[in-house]
Amino acid sequence: MDLYRDNILDHFRNPRNYGTLAGSATRVSQNNPSCGDSITINIDLSQKGKIRAVSFTGTGCAVSMASASMLTEFIKGKTSTEVLALQKEDVERLLGLKLTLARIKCALLPLETIHQALHK
Amino acid sequence: MLFKPSKIASDFPVLQRKIKGKRIVYLDSTASSLKPQSVIQETVRYYEECPVNIFRGVYTLSEEATEGYENSRGKVAEFIGCPNSAEVVFTRNATESLNLIAQTVGRTLPAHSNIVSTVMEHHANIVPWQVISGEKKIPLRFIDIDNEGRLKLDDLEKKIDKNTAILTFTFISNVLGTINPVKEIIARVKKINKNTVIVIDAAQAVPHLKLSVMDLGCDFLVFSAHKMLGPTGVGVLWGKAELLKKMPPYQTGGEMIREVQLEKTVYNEPPYKFEAGTPDIAGVLGLAKAVEYLENIGMGKIREHEKELTVYALGKLQKLSAIEIYGPKEATERGGVIAFNLKGIHPHDVAQILNNDNICIRSGHHCAMPLHHRLEINSSCRASFYLYNDESDVDALLQGLENTAKFFLRKWC
């Protein structure tokens, strides 16, 4: 049960930043058809390009939901340049586990969606 | 003979295996069945005793291999109630069998035709027809299901018309478990259009119940060896002789020819016309052993056993408020497959926790995304039964689901 560390279970059970954002936030949805995970990211950038507010909604496995919860917490206050530089290894560090082939797509879906939102 | 799953299980080497010191609870036979020793032994025997090509040599080894291969064809034909073994074509799997029909019959359809399928199909019975529909610019229609996952027969009568060239549908749904009333459907279709070619995807039926192609009245029927205790790499296409004769070849090359000149070729007769190149000889021999194994036990007994297990499992699962089950409520209407969701937990997480106890279930869309969309779900868990399963496997599943719910949600119903 190594995959489901306490921090992952905690974020899965009590996701942070879950919900929508009012106002002019950028909204991007992505899904992972092969396992049916879907996620919507809402990002509000300041004029200086800092992430003022971020939230997510979606359904998926514990890994994808925990990843979204942790990432949204992590990127708040960072610049979009900093966030765009985040990679797989950073997600692994946040989750505290090495991603297996079977779960890599679940864990990276939130980051990919965030990147897409920032490119918009 | 008394039906004893524990005795049957002893014929399957993998079920003797322990992982992390625990036994294997195999509940994914819908994806692929396990293989008994006799099937494994037969493929080994081929490679040890006569590992040579068929139809080519006049030497003893080749004659033995050829005889074995053709005897297998006869055995398979008999097993599906077909008196003419030339109507049995060996392919790679049911998917290839369906592609073969699409690329031959489908490709030669007249303009203004339409093709009809159903929303409960496996991707293998949707995508090949989408290709034909796109290429020939002809409609592809899908028959809907009701709330219990049964085909809506009144919708069938709306979708089939005078121009319906092909109706292709599954005998048993690989997700819902629904056993479709094939004979009744064919009778209704033939009343509307007697020329509609009927294709049956029997990948989930041939392994689990006795059927006869003559009795069903279909034109084509396809299935895979690996879901019926046989090796991977072999599939079957059964087709009516007069149709096989008219069809153009699917693939071309060696063995499917009668005569080749540099300018032109005369094709061989069916079934050889559709078996280009050296086939999976060991696999075909193994399939015949699988048929033998199933017949020794009896398809009627296998069906009864699976029905009993399904009644048992459904009865237990239906009592749990955390479980949502898809498909018919009555076990008599379904095969030994149950798709469900544990509310609030993604199927991948369920399957992952079950794996801690070597409980093998499928999670995801089971190659039936359109059906999942129709059910308005992203994915599901699926447990399926075969002759080697018994009530202790169902109990293990239930315990595993309880563990999963407690682990993620800290509660159980």
Protein topology:
The complex is a heterodimer of chains A (120) and B (413).
Chain A: H1 6-13, E1 26-32, E2 37-45, E3 51-59, H2 62-75, H3 80-84, H4 88-95, H5 101-119
Antiparallel strand pairs in A: 1-2, 2-3
Helix pairs in contact in A: 1-2, 2-5
Chain B: H1 5-9, E1 18-19, E2 22-23, E3 25-26, H2 37-49, H3 60-79, E4 88-91, H4 94-104, E5 114-118, H5 127-136, E6 140-143, H6 153-159, E7 164-170, H7 182-192, E8 197-201, H8 213-216, E9 220-224, E10 235-239, H9 241-246, E11 257-260, E12 265-267, H10 281-297, H11 299-318, E13 323-326, E14 337-342, H12 347-355, E15 359-360, E16 362-364, H13 369-374, E17 380-384, H14 391-409
Explain what this protein looks like in three dimensions.
- The complex is a heterodimer of chains A (120) and B (413).
- Chain A is α+β, with helices and mostly antiparallel strands and 120 residues long.
- Chain A has a single domain (6-119), classed as Sufe protein. Chain: A.
- Chain A has five helices and three strands, in the order αβββαααα.
- Chain A has helices at 6-13, 62-75, 80-84, 88-95, 101-119; strands at 26-32, 37-45, 51-59.
- In chain A, strand 2 (37-45) and strand 3 (51-59) form a beta hairpin.
- The model of chain A has no long low-confidence stretch (mean pLDDT 92).
- Chain B folds into two domains: 5-27 and 298-409, Aspartate Aminotransferase, domain 1 (Alpha-Beta Complex); 40-295, Type I PLP-dependent aspartate aminotransferase-like (Major domain) (Aspartate Aminotransferase, domain 2).
- A seven-stranded mixed sheet of chain B has the order 4-10-9-8-7-5-6, with helices on both faces. In chain B, strands 13-14-17-16 form a four-stranded antiparallel sheet, covered by helices on one side.
- Chain A binds chain B through residues 1, 3-4, 9, 12-13, 33-38, 59-64, 103, 106, and chain B through 345-349, 352-353, 356, 363-365, 369, 372, 377-379, 407-410.
- Chain A: GO terms for molecular function: iron ion binding; iron-sulfur cluster binding.
